[in-house]
Amino acid sequence: MNRTRAARIAGLWYLAMLASGPFGLLYVPSKIVVAGDAAATAAQVASHATLVRLGVSANLLCQLAFIFLVLALVRLFDGVHPGQSRLMKAFVLVAVPIAMLNEGFMLAALESATVPGLAVEARAALVGVLLHTHQQGVFIASIFWGLWLIPFGLLTIRSGFLPKVLGALLLVGGASYLVDSFVALLAPQHHAAVSSVLMVPLSVGELCMLGWLLVKGARSAPA
């Protein structure tokens, strides 16, 4: 398989991942979580059961696409640096089960919001704890979403058939994920402010890489 075809296959899996993940990770929570009101949040979860299940499904599909993406990238970077390719694949294969199992908390929140017999206060508290635990699981998975970008960025820089600037942007994105995750876990009171600053560096590298893989593929000559 030539590198351009391998790059485009990787780009398609990247597109599948980036198209499905934000729906479950960002859009669905924005529709069900009512800040500062646990009872209203529980009611939202119960009344948007189909949306919650779609969000869980989208996140699971995102993780499946993530596996196929990293396998496609290992093929693309064949011969560049085997050690970094193995490290990239290892980080992804650790991240995926964490993220997939974490969706169990979202399903448990849905079950708790709809199961009969619970008092309103107990239901609200249980749903709130499960949703919070799910969000903490996202932050844990995000550590590996940052770590995998580091060998990916280094492989890009070394490759000679992808622009070095894309590799540099991936390194910045990986570092941004790590900072965001550890701030969320260690100093949650500061996370909103930090996250707003990191939003652009966190995403721009992957979006640029996606566009390059789909449109340009891989250069035949060293960069």
Largest sheet: none
Could you state the order of secondary-structure elements as H and E? HHHHHHHH
**N-to-C span:** 20 Å
What is the count of helical runs? Answer: 8
SS content category: mainly alpha
Q: How many extended strands?
A: 0
Large-scale geometry: elongated
Work out the count of structural domains.
1
Beta-strand residue percentage? under 5%
How would you state the average pLDDT, rounded? 94
Low-confidence stretches: none
- Measured as a percent range, the helix fraction is over 70%
Radius of gyration: 19 Å
A few lines on this structure:
The protein is mostly helical and 223 residues long. It has helices at 3-32, 38-47, 49-76, 82-114, 120-147, 149-159, 164-186, 191-215.
Can you describe what's shown?
The structure is a single chain. With about 220 residues, the protein is mainly α. It has one domain (about 5-215). The chain contains 8 helices and no strands. It has helices at about 5-30, 40-45, 50-75, 80-115, 120-145, 150-160, 165-185, 190-215. The longest helix is centred in the middle third of the chain and has 33 residues, at about 80-115. It is elongated.
Question: Topology of this structure?
Answer:
Layout: H1 3-32, H2 38-47, H3 49-76, H4 82-114, H5 120-147, H6 149-159, H7 164-186, H8 191-215
Key terms:
0% strand, 84% helix, 8 helices, mainly alpha, elongated, 223 residues
